[in-house]
Amino acid sequence: MFDKKPKSYTDLLGKTNRIVEGTIIKGDIISPADFRLDGELIGNFTSNGKIVIGPAGSVKGDIICNMADIEGKFEGKIQVEDTLNIKETAHIIGEVIVGKLSVEPGATFNASCVMFSANAKATTSADE
Fold first, then answer.
1. Residue 15 has pLDDT above 90, yes or no
2. What single-letter DSSP state applies at residue 6?
């Protein structure tokens, strides 16, 4: 009845990882939790959660995630399961594959874009 398991530090402190402005990472990041990037990533990013690329953040590489908000620079291929929000300060170059797309006026969007629906996703999974 009173036998509770102690909570992990991630449960107590939240599950958002953060890379601050001025930090440069060269390599791949794999994270099960949400991620905020205000620094620079040269490499690939994979997550089951959400990535936020802040106004000072930049990514050169591929991203696979559930949701994304981009305010900074992105160059590469991004695959978002649910919604990709591109803010007015964003600069996107490359290839975009999304479920839903939101682009604010003023954003730079120079990318090929493929949107998939739940039906297309189910069909693709069945074909594999």
1. no
2. P
Q: Tell me the pTM.
A: 0.81
Integer angstrom CA distances of residue 81 from 20, 64, 94, 96 = 25, 8, 17, 11
Q: Is 111 helix (H, G, I), strand (E, B) or coil?
A: strand
What does the alpha-carbon distance between residue 91 and residue 89 come to, in Å, rounded to a whole number?
Answer: 7
Measured between alpha carbons, how far is 68 from 36 in angstroms, rounded to an integer?
10
Tokens representing 23?
């930090």
SS3 letters for 51-103?
EEECCCCEEECCEEECEEEECCEEEEEEEEEEEEEECCCCEEEEEEEEEEEEE
Is the CB of residue 84 less than 8 Å from the CB of residue 66?
A: no
Q: Is 9 helix (H, G, I), strand (E, B) or coil?
A: helix
Give per-residue pLDDT as tens, 46-79: 999 999 999 999 999 999 999 999 999 999 999 9
